[in-house]
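ENTRY TYPE: paired fold submission
RECORD: A
CONTENT: sequence, then structure tokens
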Amino acid sequence: MSTVEEPQTSTSSSACREMSFAERQAERMKRLRSLHTARNEARSHNHQEVVAEEARNKLPPNYEAKRRQAEWLLEDQKKREEAAKQGKEYDRVKLLNISAVEAERLERKKKKKNPDQGFSTYEQATVRQYNRLVKNMPTTDMEQYEKQKQKYGDAFYGGPNVIIHGMHEDRKEAVDKMVNDLEGQIAKRAKYSRRRIHNDDADIDYINERNAKFNKKLERFYGEHTAEIKQNLERGTAI
């Protein structure tokens, strides 16, 4: 009887060892699949970050400021509509949530005809200058206007087939006014100087003030493209 039972015990022990190896192999494959999944997720996430960063780099420099301004305008319009539905005056409700100093500043700013909102774009600066020049124009002399209209006829408004060169003579008063205005603009630009912080630790790579401004322009436009060349020259490793 003992000779018959011994092979059965050996077969059972071998089966247990084989199951243990299969379980270990299954665990390894499970971990391998988990690592593959994590790698694919990291690759996808990195790709999304690269695409998002490239999209941000293509945006204009003042995109964030414009976005915040647009969000504020939408929120302000929403609150204004809610106040209108409740029969309340929005400007009065708005003043309840700000300090007296801020309210006074906003009121002074509102009273200005052409307030200086600060530089935003060159188009806005041009529009502001145009409005200022139009505001300074004298009142139109309607009598003189009608006389010129009768004198020039169809040439008064001009057209594709009308030659007006030499027909109109500028008045001396108008020429003097234009000259005075241009001289005033030149004098104002000459007095204007934006305060800049001087950095004592910065490298001196200029010979005079004009050359310093020119070097700053070069750095602003070409600095990122020539940074490596400049570093090689400073280290003495340039080819």
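RECORD: B
CONTENT: sequence, then structure tokens
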Amino acid sequence: MVDCERAEALNLQHEFEWVLNQEIHKGLDQVHQILVECARRFPVQLYGHDNSSKQEKFVLSVPSDQLKCLVTLTGDSITHADINFKVTKQTNNPVMVHTAIHNDHPWKLQQVQDAANHLQQAIYHIDDVGKNYKFKSSDEVLHILGNILGSLQRGRTSLIVPKKKAIDELMNSRNMKALSPNIPEDTAISFYIQSHKLIFATYQLTNIHGNISYDSSHAEYPVPWLNEVLVLFTVGLQLCQQLKDKICVFSQYKDFTVGSRPPSPGPGI
């Protein structure tokens, strides 16, 4: 019985060393390829690729002509936009407001740069592990995988969940001050990314008998490279999670290191 347990523990030791020396490096290399491919899709300078001059044009509108916006997206900034949207005056008559964004004051989409920064950090975490590096324990591998997963999750979230801003924060933002001509003081606009779409939103404050609220409208347009980036983020996360699940089999052995004699498995293992 004791000999069987020792043989099983020895087999587990060999499997552990094979996973650390072969499977993890192979898996990290696969994740690295996916993430570099993801970096190539970003319209910014990222990991040796520079697509910051990439230019795309979109028309964001709604059927009722409540708003319409012709956008030129260069890299991670809106470098030109022709904006028209309706607001309601106190007489309840809708009035069309016109403004524009020009090259000298672009509207930066910070979410794109944030996601790119997190992606680059994930790639660097893999680069820091030399191809010939010998891992010593499952905890060491789990720590590295945790760093990669954390960076990828933050990068993906940057694109999927835009940061919410209060209406007064929008009104006083640097981007709003760059609009020409200025729009009415009780209105604000916003551009942001949500999943694979570029969103254009308008907001108008209303004050009815002292009760302040706001009305909003929005239009959206799918951006092809965003969809590709999100798919690659997801694939990278899945591959990392698979590696983590595989190595977690050994994490129950807290003192289980390469070259050490593993403890005998308990009943049922």
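NOTES ON RECORD B: The longest helix spans residues 2-41. The two ends are 14 Å apart (CA to CA).
STATUS: closed
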